[in-house]
Amino acid sequence: MSTSSTERYALSFTSGGLLMREAALLAPLYLEALDWDRARKSAIERNLLQTRTLSSNMRLTRETVQRVSELTDAEIAVLIEAGPSERQALMWVAACRRYQLIAEFAEEVVRERFLLMNPKVNLDDFDRFRIGKSLWHPELEDLKPSTAQKLRQNLFRMLTEAGLLTDQWHIVPAMLSGRVAHLLGARTPSDIRFFPTTTSAGAEQ
Questions:
Q1: Which of 121, 125, 107, 131 is nearest to 166 (CA)?
Q2: Rounded mean pLDDT, 46-72
Q3: What is residue 170's predicted lDDT score, i.e. its pLDDT?
Q4: Top-tier CATH class for 90-194
Q5: d(Cα 202, Cα 173) in Å, to the nearest integer?
Q6: Which residues contact residue 74 at a Cβ distance below 8 angstroms, ignoring those fewer than 6 apart?
């Protein structure tokens, strides 16, 4: 189980879900020049993500870049040509790497529940988790109730879009492809810890 850090949590994941569609559009721009700044500017100029306003274009592009840039070039190459399940796994990992709060909830609540054969996680579990973390992270205590609700809602949306929760919030065992499991397992510690699975590597599809 991971331990809390005194570093402030980044808490900008209030909307957008897992951003799989957006990531699939932006990732090829990055691989063309291996330059995220150039990819971001190009995407905004072209309104690649097809938003209605410039402000939403900039916000959504920035958020997508921040997440996908957490992946290695090898992971991004897989992301571009991946099927839905591999893209789900990679974008879930990107969210966990970008947001420590999500990573800790994934490991300390969702994965732990799964290993203890408790098949469900609910909104109250997140509230208790957030309150516990606020002992070390006063930024959580200072959240407006509406912001805390948005964070919770979008986190559960991401878990569902990643295929790790059903619509009724039952935990779904992760089935990682061989190549994704290899990429995630090569890190220290292994990023497979962000998934509900009993093994150190996911089952090959």
A1: 121
A2: 96
A3: 98
A4: mainly alpha
A5: 10
A6: 183
| CA angle (74 as vertex; 192, 57 as ends), nearest 5 | 90
Cα–Cα distance measured from residue 13 to residue 153, given in angstroms and rounded to the nearest whole number: 10
Mean residue pLDDT of the chain comes to 93
pLDDT at 198: 84
The angle at the Cα of 99, spanning 112 to 18, to the nearest 5 degrees, equals 85
Nearest Cα residue to 194 out of 177, 174, 172:
174
pLDDT at 108: 97
Report, in this order, helix, strand and coil percent for the chain, each rounded to 5: 60, 0, 40
Residue 165 forms beta bridges with which residues?
171
Domain ranges for the chain = 20-69, 90-194
Q: Give the list of residues 6+ apart from residue 117 with CB closer than 8 angstroms, or none.
A: none
Q: Which pTM does this prediction carry?
A: 0.93
> What pLDDT does 96 receive?
98
Instruction: Tell me if 169 sits within 8 A of 121, measured CB to CB.
Output: yes
